[in-house]
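Minimal example, chain plus iron/sulfur cluster.
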Amino acid sequence: MTGDLQADPSRDGTPTPGPFVSVRDLRVHFATDDGLVKSVDGLSFDLERGRTLGIVGESGSGKSVTSMAIMGLHKPSTVRLTGSITVGGQELVGADPDVVRRLRGKRMAMIFQDPLSAMHPFYTVGQQIIEAYRVHHRVPKKVARVRAIELLDRVGIPQPDKRVDDYPHQFSGGMRQRAMIAMALSCDPDLLIADEPTTALDVTVQAQILDLIRDLQREFHSAVILITHDLGVVAELADDILVMYAGRCVEYASAEAVFDEPRHPYTWGLMASMPRLDRDVTTRLLPIRGTPPSLINLPPGCPFHPRCRADDLVGDRCRTERPQFRVSAPGHRIACHLDDDQRAAALARDAGDLGDGREQEIG
Ligand code: SF4
């Protein structure tokens, strides 16, 4: 995290204060008949251009709500949004909706999990890319059509000059995802948010789409936020990883540090539940016990304590005192009461449990 002045070379060269994307104490709350749903509750992070931040967590952890808040896609009448989100120095929280709309597509764009529901079925793929392009560029349709064909070609659609006139249902799932990436790139966004971009795709196509996002990021020098429940996907792409639980960040470090030495019991649980090439094929995949908490009534103390297998090493604090988000090692922050000795003991215990093949859940 830095507060230095940094040039934003893609635009007018005017330096903008701080990182390209800066989120501070973001809270996204929804008033419901049952109470206030605190989907995101005090999230902070920075992201530079040319880097990818992977935000991981289970369903309901607040990942997608965060990305929707950055894109300004929540209906103002349904949401209480506080804190700060700046993109290229522009504050978005409380900004005029027209300002956010102008930024969307021009400086930031989003790739969704399900391109079929994000694309209009009545318009051809080409018409939709042309429209997206012309919203921000005053060019004749013919020029925009040439750009649409170029973009379809760039994202690997075969015969783009013909397929540009196809409807979304005429594309395969992988091609639709490529077309949506083309649409997102039509305005050279500085910030690209990919929300579960490969979840609906088979493994081969998934790898191709991740390669494509990586190549395009290098080419466009964009900042990328990758939202996923799948640690395998962030392992492919992310420079840094932010692990979310119950609307808060519980672990933040470089991808290397999180994979080599995860420090939060929730991250241990996520890792134990995913297949890994560096693990013996006979090792069981172990789901985290229990279910994510209600975001209306979080458990007291650490919100993860009802599911945590290491809380007995700390004692009552886990049930009474919410852990602060703190530096645990250089560049590595966690929200957990475990000290280094307790963490080592917990890991040794888990390694023993896994090694003797006992069938149990981990958390
Ligand atoms: Fe587990 Fe306690 Fe750490 Fe929470 S604070 S993750 S309950 S050890």
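The mean pLDDT is 86. The first strand starts at residue 5 and ends at 6.
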